[in-house]
Amino acid sequence: AIDAGDFARAYSLWENEGQASGLSLAEFQQGFAETEGVEARVGPAGRIEGAAGSRYVEVPVDLTATTTDGRVQRFRGSLVLRRSVVPGATPEQQRWHIYRAEIVELPDAATTPGAR
């Protein structure tokens, strides 16, 4: 969604209609103002864990972002996804959402345009 410029959709993938990102939609979108494109490689999901009417799963992710000036940035980490399983939960609450992200930029990530 970010690569397609659909920031509202990307924001909505966060829990509580995007609020779990810790940002407003405008702040979230502004964070990608200098991003030309994003590629995500998602690894295999971990074991699904249960707690208090919720299910959680951790998913590893590698991200490559290209800025509007051609720099390449690489990030690595994981996303923790959550969904509700309580009786009466809405379909939206039963859908997997990003609960928490633990992603860091790799120290040697910035490269010059065209470099690999």
Describe, in plain words, how this protein is organized in 3D.
With 116 residues, this protein is mostly beta strands. 14% of the residues lie in helices and 41% in strands. The protein has helices spanning 7-12, 25-30, 91-94; strands at residues 35-42, 49-51, 54-67, 72-84, 97-105. Strands 1, 2, 3, 4 and 5 form a five-stranded antiparallel beta sheet that branches. It starts with 6 loop residues before the first helix and ends in an 11-residue tail after the last strand.
Outline the fold blueprint.
Elements: H1 7-12, H2 25-30, E1 35-42, E2 49-51, E3 54-67, E4 72-84, H3 91-94, E5 97-105
Antiparallel strand pairs: 1-3, 2-3, 3-4, 4-5
Question: Concise description?
Answer:
This protein is mainly beta and 116 residues long. It has helices at residues 7-12, 25-30, 91-94; strands at 35-42, 49-51, 54-67, 72-84, 97-105. Strands 1, 2, 3, 4 and 5 form a 5-stranded antiparallel sheet that branches.
User: How many E strands?
Assistant: 5
Distance between the termini: 25 Å
Determine the number of helices (DSSP H or I, runs of at least 4 residues).
3
* Mean pLDDT metric: 92
CA-based shape: globular
What structural category arises from helix and sheet content?
mainly beta
**Could you tell me the strand content as a percent range?**
35-45%
State the order of secondary-structure elements, H for helix, E for strand. HHEEEEHE
Show unreliable segments: 109-116
Largest sheet: 5 strands, antiparallel
| CA radius of gyration | 16 Å
Helical content, roughly? 10-25%
